[in-house]
Structure prediction request, 222 residues.
Amino acid sequence: MTYDNITPAKFISRPNRFIAKVEVSGAVETVHVKNTGRCKELLIPGCDVWLTAPSSPGRKTRYDLVCVRKSNGLLINIDSQAPNKVAGEWLAGQGFDVVVPEYTYGDSRIDFYMSKGDVQYLMEVKGCTLEVDGIGYFPDAPTERGVKHIRELTGALEDGYRAILAFVIQMEGVEEVRANVAMHPEFGEALDEAEAAGVEVLFLPCRVTPDMLRIREDISRI
Prediction:
């Protein structure tokens, strides 16, 4: 996926999880942060960030903050809507007969349903923006919703689905994602149980520029 327009800025502060103050062309601007996670290790006063201007009707802010350069030099896309978009683009080239986003399964919506011949798949997508010493970690804040999704995938195995938990790694140079058990032990427990039951965990490293996020071309097919 690419952004139609991108503007560099300097991060100043984050008054709450929805907005940030940034400096754009010498002026202070309030912008929407497209990630409700904590991002404390990323959004540090003075860091380089990049904004996009969607021009959506009725907006209170002109810009969305979508990308940040971490203090160690990593460029990280923090747009929480981007992982599903790039996963959908990637799945379109994977040879499936059918790809259905936002698929209703039980009392929930799973990010993707796919089929290939007689094989049916359910895939839940999580975006990873937290990096420590070259390893990705998820989540960066407690996520009961994430635990629920993992347990739904585990249950889907009994219904004959091939179940996949895919981590879209929104930065370059990181190949692996681990459960952030220090932040949310229950997520780690659910992930271990799911893998033991047969849920596949898929790492999807990306190419990242300020105006683009794309799953790498060399990633193996499902």
